[in-house]
Write a structure and sequence with these properties.
alpha/beta; Rossmann fold; 2 domains; 14 helices; 15 strands; about 35% helix
């Protein structure tokens, strides 16, 4: 019998984790997602946050009595908690559930949560009921340029990146991981999600943390050393990594990060294959994508191998008003219709792992991977 679990605070990037977690291990079962009050998600299926097909996990508010019912452990994303500006006092909520005998497993990029801040009194009072996982503890290589040195990985590297947002990149990685594991293959994954630590994956969030004191060169060296350590321990046949930011500058009004972090990561890991997540309106622009692939070859050292068509559209008004790229979700059937219209004419294989699964994409990767050996 699996242990029933809730997650908090639920947000868009957590959806792929929730969708695949129950299949990935035999100990825990996520049965509930707890989101901020006023998010518009209360009473909805968790997949509603991205307009995806239902996954059977309800969203509740932490202020409701039923948010305490039906589970024994709460998974907490501490970094999302820190980013939030919600007026709700999360630590009062934690005190209430701990006093009822429930437990907390908290995940963060750093390992000093118990030594300072609002976690300290809870850790002192309920030390047996709180457990922490951190990205910093997961790393074997030390963050200095005097590590074992730079070298190429001994296995093929698959980069999964978003053209103008990171939409569905984590979903593609988790779906591929699940597909490969069903085939008995070992893959290692490095992503921008701390929650992946609970699934045996790895994260670079502590390296790209704005508070990190590493130079850009040291970040690349630490990423490379970290990947070497992972490959040495896990012996995968494929190393999958998520691009840490959008891969393309959007325009002068909203540069969108310029893909600088992704460039640094590609210098560290030298990917051999690229799956690019694109909006449905971009997927129909065949000539444009061919030019983008050539640009990626020059910039990142790898052309586009395949496309995943997500279901986001750029909110043009925010580019003018806020000078940043924000996206809204359209229905999956709309994205699928556009994808199927262009799949025969596009120069790249087109997939949607949300609606179709990742088996087709996985087979393509295995074919291309075989050519690399």
């Amino acid at each position: 019998m699996k242990i029933e679990v809730a997650v908090f605070p639920f947000h868009e990037r957590m959806l792929p984790f929730i969708r695949h977690f129950n299949q990935a291990q035999d100990v825990y079962h996520i049965c509930q997602a707890i989101a901020w009050s006023g998010s518009g998600l209360n009473g909805r299926d968790a997949a509603f946050i991205c307009c995806h097909p239902n996954i059977g996990i309800p969203v509740v508010s932490p202020t409701e009595t039923k948010s305490f019912i039906g589970w024994q452990i709460l998974f907490v994303d501490c970094d999302e908690l820190e980013r939030s500006s919600a007026a709700f006092n999360s630590f009062t909520f934690f005190e209430q559930l701990l006093s009822k005998g429930k437990k907390i497993i908290a995940v963060a990029k750093n390992n000093n949560l118990c030594s300072n801040g609002e976690w300290t009194p809870l850790c002192q009072k309920y030390s047996e009921q709180i457990q922490f996982f951190s990205a910093a503890d997961d790393v074997k290589g030390k963050p200095t340029s005097q590590s074992s040195g730079y070298s190429l990985l001994s296995v093929p590297v698959l980069l999964v990146g978003g053209l103008i947002s990171q939409e569905d990149c984590l979903e593609v990685i988790l779906a591929l991981r699940e597909s490969f594991m069903c085939q008995g293959k070992v893959v290692s994954c490095l992503t921008g999600s701390n929650m992946g630590l609970l699934m045996g994956m790895h994260t670079y969030t502590h390296i790209f943390d704005k508070k990190a004191t590493l130079s850009e060169e040291d970040k690349a060296l630490v990423l490379n050393q970290m990947a070497q350590d992972i490959v040495q321990v896990e012996r995968p046949s494929l190393f999958i990594v998520e691009a840490p930011d959008p891969m393309m500058k959007y325009n002068n009004a909203a540069p969108n990060g310029f893909g600088l972090q992704t460039y640094l990561l590609c210098q560290a890991l030298k990917p051999n294959l690229l799956v690019c997540s694109v909006p449905p309106d971009v997927a129909v622009a065949e000539g444009f994508l061919s030019l983008i692939s050539k640009d990626f070859t020059a910039r990142y050292g790898v052309p586009i191998m395949a496309l995943h068509v997500n279901n986001v559209m750029v909110a043009a008004f925010d580019i003018i008003r806020l000078h940043k790229v924000t996206c809204v979700h359209t229905n999956i059937p709309v994205a699928d219709m556009l994808r199927k219209q262009q799949s025969k004419n596009c120069a790249f294989p087109i997939f949607n792992v949300v609606s179709e699964g990742a088996d087709g994409l996985a087979q393509l990767i295995l074919q291309r991977e075989a050519l690399l050996w």
